[in-house]
Design brief:
By secondary structure, this protein is mostly helical. The chain has 18 helices and no strands.
Length: 537
């Protein structure tokens, strides 16, 4: 999942600029690497988590989104908190909170406890992303030093995304899934110690203030929306709790718009959306990144849950996707300056759509890497093209005085789109699989007792729980039905994500077109164009 803080830090060092320059960069890089590892950590071990805790499909989705939600919606507020009270304090506190979350996850014996741990770690990561960037920016007073610092920061970000599936897959290959979270918790303690010992304190309180009403309303709106989407297939779309959650999401979103329009220091400048090209770029970011991360989550379920691949084997496809972007990054930077973001986004989103449709065409019984290699490489190339250009597309269409807010807004809406990816794909796939299994079991050659047992498991935990349940000889009888239903459901999810990527490509073509470098980004620098970013499956 793409990750960068939805925050544009003021550059105001409070300590000497050179006393802890190197140490601050090391600490900031460790912190952002830790945050990114947490985002990608479950991708390779979703299957093991599901089988170990016997989670339902909805609970499995919550395990991923419990981290993604705070990481998406709290970054702006934590950025302001760091400016007001000190970025070093935020860096240390965020790493320690992440460590507490990983400790909760490492001792979990239920889905509820794991979700709680993921939420705590996600809040910590939401602090680490803006604080790590801000301490590096504040400690590098010259443009050349700042460019090197930002390059180091984004390299660490990409490294974290690459390390995460390798770490979780390798550890869980030989131990329980809890040890993957324990190992990451130890890294969090190291990051906290490094931040405490090495980081120079900095702040920039002038003109900064918190937008608590905006933060509360957007956070609650997203949680209500996700609850409705995730719980809909299990509880029923017409159940009172699900309907109420959608109503609450709409009301809270309306309240957020009102608060932001009237606030003295809004977390989002909504007037930016009155610029048609910017509004189109924001829509493209939400829809396209929803498509990308929804596809990545779909892949993790295919490998770990449906095919029961080992954690290390399930990690390899994500390593392929992650490895493409750093490998081609010099070319992407040259393309961005030569042709501009429009052609890159059209091509990138189209490649992502093609990759997901290609993956859908690979039979579910194909468990080797070779049949997946084509769509994986195409996915990596498309992702690289998109992350290299998506923020540049937004900041190029606003006045120079608003580029910082435009970048922050794009990061936020992009992360919101990615948060919705697993939720919507899971809802579509599980709803379709449940319906298909209900009919298949009715026509299967099962005794009344066997049919009753299978139906009870399906009603209680959904199709994923039925697919992985230990039911003796009954498991072998129903395995072809559960595998086919889940494959069809998650293939439908891939169609949805591919369509989303194609819609994003159309938006890019209409509003950005294939204009070449005349509207590019020469002269702009920052974390968005300095080096590759990572993914959040």
């Amino acid at each position: 999942m793409v990750s960068s803080p939805a925050y544009d830090p003021p550059i105001t060092p409070t300590d000497g600029p050179s006393a802890r320059h190197t140490g601050t960069i090391i600490a900031g890089c460790l912190a952002v690497c830790l945050a990114q590892i947490g985002l990608v950590l479950p991708a390779a071990i979703n299957g093991v988590i599901q089988r170990s805790l016997q989670t339902s499909g909805a609970e499995l989705t919550w395990i991923s989104d419990a981290f993604l939600v705070p990481a998406a919606v709290l970054a702006l507020t934590f950025g302001v908190l760091g400016d007001l009270y000190g970025r070093k304090k935020l860096l240390v506190g965020g790493a320690l909170l992440a460590a507490v979350g990983y400790a909760v996850s490492a001792t979990s014996d239920s889905a509820a406890q794991l979700i709680t741990g993921q939420a705590l770690s996600g809040i910590g990561a939401a602090a680490l992303f803006p604080a790590s960037l801000a301490v590096i920016t504040a400690s590098t007073p010259t443009p050349a030093a700042r460019a090197r610092g930002l390059a180091s920061w984004t390299t660490a970000l990409s490294l974290g995304a690459f390390i995460a599936p390798l770490l979780s897959g390798s550890v869980v290959e030989h131990a329980s899934f809890q040890w993957a979270f324990a190992a990451t918790g130890l890294l969090a303690l190291v990051a906290a110690a490094a931040a405490w010992r090495l980081t120079a304190e900095s702040s920039a309180p002038e003109g900064r203030s918190l937008d608590w009403p905006g933060q509360i309303t957007i956070g609650l709106a997203l949680l209500a929306l996700l609850y409705g989407i995730i719980q809909g297939p299990a509880d029923g779309w017409g159940s009172p709790a699900v309907v109420l959650s959608f109503v609450a999401a709409a009301v809270l979103l309306g309240a957020f718009v009102q608060v932001e329009n009237r606030g003295a220091s809004p977390m989002l400048r909504l007037e930016l959306f009155r610029i048609p090209a910017f509004a189109a770029s924001a829509a493209m970011a939400v829809i396209g990144m929803f498509g990308f991360l929804g596809g990545a989550y779909d892949l993790s379920i295919r490998l770990g849950v449906i095919q029961h691949q080992s954690p290390l084997r399930a990690a390899v496809p994500f390593l392929v996707i992650q490895g493409i972007t750093p490998f081609i990054w010099p070319l992407l930077v040259r393309l961005l300056h030569k042709v501009g973001p429009g052609p890159m986004l059209v091509t990138g989103f189209t490649a992502l759509a093609a990759a997901q449709l290609w993956l859908r065409a690979v039979p579910i019984h194909e468990t080797g890497l070779v049949p997946l290699l084509g769509p994986l490489v195409l996915n990596g190339v498309g992702f690289g093209l998109v992350v290299a250009a998506i923020t540049a597309a937004a900041v190029n269409v606003v006045p120079p005085s608003l580029t910082g807010m435009a970048s922050a807004t794009t990061s936020l809406v992009r992360d919101l789109g990615q948060t919705l990816g697993p939720a919507v794909v899971g809802a579509v796939a599980l709803g379709m699989a449940t319906s298909q299994l209900t009919g298949s079991l009715a026509g299967a050659e099962l005794t009344p007792a066997e049919h009753g047992t299978a139906s009870a498991v399906l009603d209680a935990g959904g199709p994923i729980a039925l697919h992985t349940a230990e039911l003796g000889p009954l498991s072998a009888k129903i395995a072809p039905f559960t595998e086919r239903a889940l494959a069809d459901g998650y293939n439908a999810g891939l169609v949805l994500t591919a369509v989303a990527c194609l819609v994003a490509a159309v938006i890019a073509a209409v509003f950005l077109g294939f204009r070449t470098r005349g509207s590019g980004v020469a002269g702009k620098s920052g974390p968005e164009t300095a080096a590759p970013e990572g993914i959040r499956p």
